[in-house]
Design brief:
Citrate_synthase_sf, globular, mainly alpha, citrate synthase activity, binds s-citryldethia Coenzyme A, 386 residues
Length: 386
């Protein structure tokens, strides 16, 4: 219509922001946290060290890392009432729904969390959330398994403690294997932050109202739950399991019958650098657990898609979710836990972005603009005349 601003349906008008945390070059397939290439961090760092980097802007000294690790380790427990809250869910409740609800409930345990103007208070709430997410995720998992919850063990590292809370006294016998703990560290590092993605935008938007960080992170978990975002890793395994012949499936995708889950990205129009690293981590994990039989189908799908004009012309490449589910399944996580495994490490990125938002004196409450396409002013019509 005349005068209507042009509107690109692919551009969801979200709150724009300045950020110094994560840099992505989608065409070149580059990802850097505070300037450090993701490949170097995945190779040489630990998740808590990367979380410190995202939150503080610099890699920690050994004393700083020891202090941060000590703080996080001593905030892993949950109030017993919160455990009862989780026990109130149905036996088959989806763990992402449980995680979103219990993180939101956490805000009621820490009323001081609303004092977000105080940097020390912000830091305490950030530490609590980074520390408690694995415990909440593990409790949700054990609830679904009908097994007793396993309390945190402060003698273990962040990821080893998470695996122990999940799999202690269970048939999964290799969760203490150093190679698997390292593989999970790498996966956590790769999922820690990713610039202004859908869930981070939700955290920033909700956080811009100056609500407490638990409520903002709960909003991020809700966004990540969606199959087009973090839920894609669960959707990939379901897709791989029901593929009859790969060629036929690809033709179905090209006919628009469905999407190739784990492919495509809002920003990467090249290979997602995280997918490259995760594919390598597959080899390390499968050396311990045995090869996931779905890997063969995934690699065949990738090979065909990377040579097919439909995908090439649309710049569709594997993203972070294409291979991660294969590792999670080999570690005997049920599919509904895959997105929880995304939310736990992403919490440090969400909180770094939330903190940055609050420290930006020019940042205002999120209020995206719209292009109005509805009817303009007109007179009311009495019901008898309609
Ligand atoms: C994550 O933003 C982030 O950073 C997110 C994330 C993070 O770390 O936070 O990286 C994590 O969410 C990764 C993405 C996980 N989602 C999936 O794997 C779901 C499958 N992917 C698609 O739904 C899609 O690729 C999106 C949602 C990821 C991106 O959508 P875009 O960029 O908006 O792509 P588009 O919808 O504009 O598609 C362009 C074309 C369309 O075809 P045409 O209409 O032009 O004919 O490509 C097609 C789409 O139909 N297309 C696909 C496809 N993705 C896009 N066709 C088949 N399979 C796909 N996966």
């Amino acid at each position: 219509e005349p005068g209507l601003a042009t509107y690109d349906p692919g551009f969801v008008n979200t709150a724009s922001c300045r950020s110094a945390i994560t840099y992505i070059d989608g065409d070149a397939g580059v990802l850097e946290y505070r300037g450090y290439p993701i490949e170097q961090l995945a190779e040489s760092s630990s998740y808590l060290e990367v979380a410190y980097l995202l939150l503080n802007g610099e890699l920690p000294t050994s004393d700083e890392l020891a202090g941060w690790t000590h703080e996080v380790t001593h905030h892993t427990f949950l109030h017993e009432n919160l455990k009862q809250f989780i026990q109130g869910f149905r036996y088959d409740a989806h763990p992402m729904g449980m995680l979103m609800a219990s993180v939101s409930a956490l805000s009621t345990y820490y009323p001081d969390a609303r004092e977000i103007a105080d940097p020390e208070n912000r830091r305490l709430q950030i530490t609590r959330l980074v520390a408690k997410m694995p415990t909440l995720g593990a409790f949700a998992y054990r609830h679904g398994q009908g097994k007793p919850y396993v309390y945190p063990d402060n003698d273990l590292s962040y990821t080893a403690n998470f695996l122990a809370m999940l799999f202690k006294m269970s048939e999964q016998k290799y969760n203490a294997d150093e190679r698997l703990i390292k593989a999970l560290e790498v996966l956590f590092i790769l999922h820690a932050d990713h610039e202004q993605n859908c869930s981070t935008n939700a955290v920033r938007s909700v956080g811009s109202s100056q609500v407490d960080p638990y409520s903002a992170v709960a909003a991020g978990i809700g966004a990540l739950y969606g199959p087009l975002h973090g839920g894609a890793n669960e959707a990939v395994l379901k897709m791989l399991r029901r593929i009859g012949t790969v060629g036929e499936f690809i033709e179905g995708v090209k006919a628009g019958k469905e999407k190739l889950m784990g492919f495509g990205h809002r920003v990467y129009k090249n290979y997602d650098p995280r997918a490259t690293i995760i594919k390598k981590a597959c080899d390390d994990v499968f050396a311990v657990t045995g090869v996931n039989p779905l890997l063969k189908i995934a690699m065949e799908l990738e090979k065909i898609a990377l040579e097919d004009e439909y995908f090439i012309s649309r710049k569709l490449y594997p993203n972070v979710d294409f291979y991660s589910g294969l590792i999670y399944e080999a570690l005997q996580f049920p599919p509904e836990m895959f997105t929880v495994l995304f939310a736990i490490p992403r919490t440090s990125g969400w909180l770094a972005q939330w903190q940055e938002l609050l420290m930006d004196k020019d940042q205002k409450i999120a209020r995206p603009k719209q292009i109005y396409t509805g009817a303009r002013t007109r007179d009311f019509i009495p019901i008898e005349k309609r």
